[in-house]
């Protein structure tokens, strides 16, 4: 073999090695509508750093806060289209593809975060995750990212469902959310999270519902007067990514990423619980009235939602898993 031929062969081998190396490095962009200092944002940043460390930089997670990649629905659409994108989403949005998933956002179902975390690791729930990948091209890495209890944010005091009659309340545009808010007495009005502040400021909507850390993070205390602690839905969210991007990973890297997603879901959830009450204290200090309320009338009002949305068997499964 001549020197020229040897040099040519070496160049081909080197280019092939570089190509293999390039293929082994995968970047997934994770977006959130929340601020960087929100517990979800802090959890995602920690998750990204630990994935890079555990995979030797072969899996790169880039985190985008404050709706930089769009609203949650837009990010899910990007992921379904095959882009290397993921997001933290309320699981009810995914019930469009797997109706049973709506149970994670059902009203007054989970008493504690630990209950939701336990059910999210159950065989029944993980089976719905497999179904989601098949039907929607989305992979749920972990469904234990807890954002806190949703409370009613209004201009007028609320003591019961009757006080919400005719009130246009922003909520998430999934059936279980819409029907829960309607059953509570308000008029559900789905709009993007990033538009809630201006919609309240301009009077396009009368009210909203959100968890304590998000009330503070989005500065909604500037445009509402009352927070009523209804806790009607425990916002348990899922970290989901494009199946196309996911399937670029080796089996070893998939296991690492899944394990770290669950671990950091618990970390972020711990921050949510820790910072939630402090957030409400800060909201109260701004002049907003924080009120406790008798939950019995609200629980009675939303009870028909389960049968309306065919979620009674799923609710029974939750109770069975939790032995309640």
TrEMBL record:
InterPro entries: DctP_fam, TRAP_DctP, TRAP_DctP_sf. Coiled coil: none annotated. The keyword Signal applies. It comes from Psychromarinibacter halotolerans. It is found in: Periplasm. This is C4-dicarboxylate TRAP transporter substrate-binding protein. It comes from the Bacteria. Residues 1-24 form the signal peptide. Keywords: Periplasm, Signal. Pfam families: DctP. Its main location: periplasm.
């Amino acid at each position: 073999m001549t020197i020229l031929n040897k040099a040519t062969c070496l160049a081909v081998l080197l280019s092939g090695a570089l190509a293999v190396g390039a293929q082994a490095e995968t970047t997934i962009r994770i977006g959130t509508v929340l601020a960087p200092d929100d517990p979800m944002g802090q959890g995602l940043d920690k998750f990204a750093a630990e994935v890079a460390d555990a995979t030797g930089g072969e899996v790169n997670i880039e985190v985008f806060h404050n709706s930089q990649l769009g609203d949650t629905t837009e990010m899910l659409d990007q992921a379904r289209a095959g882009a290397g994108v993921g997001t933290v989403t309320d699981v009810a949005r995914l019930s469009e593809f797997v109706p049973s998933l709506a149970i994670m956002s059902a009203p007054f179902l989970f008493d504690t975060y630990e209950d939701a975390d336990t059910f999210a690791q159950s065989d029944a729930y993980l089976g719905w995750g497999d179904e989601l990948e098949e039907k929607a091209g989305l992979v749920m890495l972990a469904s234990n990212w807890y954002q806190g209890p949703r409370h009613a944010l209004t201009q007028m005091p609320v003591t019961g469902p009757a006080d919400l009659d005719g009130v246009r309340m922003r909520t998430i545009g999934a059936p279980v959310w819409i029907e829960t808010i309607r059953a509570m007495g308000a008029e559900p009005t789905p709009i993007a999270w990033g538009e809630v502040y201006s919609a309240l400021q301009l009077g396009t909507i009368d009210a909203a519902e959100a968890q304590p850390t998000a009330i503070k993070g989005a500065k909604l205390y500037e445009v509402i007067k009352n927070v009523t602690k209804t806790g009607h839905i425990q916002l348990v969210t899922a970290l989901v990514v494009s199946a196309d991007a996911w399937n670029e990973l080796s089996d070893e890297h998939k296991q690492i990423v899944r394990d770290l997603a669950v671990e950091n879901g618990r970390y972020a959830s711990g921050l949510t619980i820790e910072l939630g009450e402090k957030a409400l204290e800060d909201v109260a200090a701004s002049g907003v009235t924080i009120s406790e309320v008798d939950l019995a009338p609200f629980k009675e009002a939303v009870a028909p939602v389960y049968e309306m949305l065919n979620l009674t068997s799923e609710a029974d499964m939750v109770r069975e898993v939790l032995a309640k």
